[in-house]
């Protein structure tokens, strides 16, 4: 192998495939690291990477949205609510953020607030079946107190 070939291989291996070296000052770089960490179920690491992306681009709705997902995976529902609220502030048409914030509120037993979020998601997309399902669960929880309590009562009959 010639010296020129070796230099060319080193140059290609140190770029992103388009002749550009990935920049640590690029929010997409940190966002992608966060998504990769989520795929590996390393949610705290993902939160750190999304936070770094947001320090570079504080209007990156995807980083807020996916950071909330990792926060939810670590049972940090209040942090997830804050991040999904930020997504909604930046993009009031983000039906997924309304739905996910509803899920977080439902897990905190704030059923009426959850139903309001599901209603907004449905208003934005009347065919959003997940939001209909989640709203139904929240309405049931609101009426019954908690699915687990009802399930326990049913099981005791057997």
Largest sheet: none
Radius of gyration: 21 Å
Measure the end-to-end span: 76 Å
Structure annotation, total helices: 9
Q: Can you say what the CATH homologous superfamily is?
A: Tetratricopeptide repeat domain
Identify the overall geometry.
elongated
CATH architecture: Alpha Horseshoe
CATH class annotation: Mainly Alpha
User: What portion of residues is helical?
Assistant: over 70%
Low-confidence stretches: 11-21, 150-158
Mean pLDDT score, rounded? 85
E-strand count? 0
SS class: mainly alpha
Predict the CATH topology: Serine Threonine Protein Phosphatase 5, Tetratricopeptide repeat
Strand content: under 5%
Number of domains in the coordinates? 1
Q: What is the H/E string?
A: HHHHHHHHH
């Amino acid at each position: 192998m010639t010296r020129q070939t070796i230099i060319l291989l080193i140059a290609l291996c140190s770029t992103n495939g388009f002749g550009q070296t990935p920049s640590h000052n690029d929010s997409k770089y940190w966002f992608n690291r966060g998504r990769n960490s989520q795929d590996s179920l390393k949610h705290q690491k993902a939160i750190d990477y999304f936070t770094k992306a947001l320090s570079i681009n504080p209007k990156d709705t995807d980083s807020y949205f996916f950071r909330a997902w990792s926060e939810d995976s670590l049972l940090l529902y209040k942090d997830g609510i804050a991040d999904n609220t930020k997504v909604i502030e930046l993009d009031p048409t983000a039906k997924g953020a309304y739905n996910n914030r509803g899920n977080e509120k439902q897990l905190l037993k704030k059923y009426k607030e959850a139903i309001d979020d599901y209603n907004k998601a449905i208003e934005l997309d009347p065919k959003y079946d997940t939001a209909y399902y989640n709203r139904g669960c929240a309405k049931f929880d609101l009426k019954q107190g908690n699915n687990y309590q009802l399930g326990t009562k049913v099981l005791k009959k057997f």
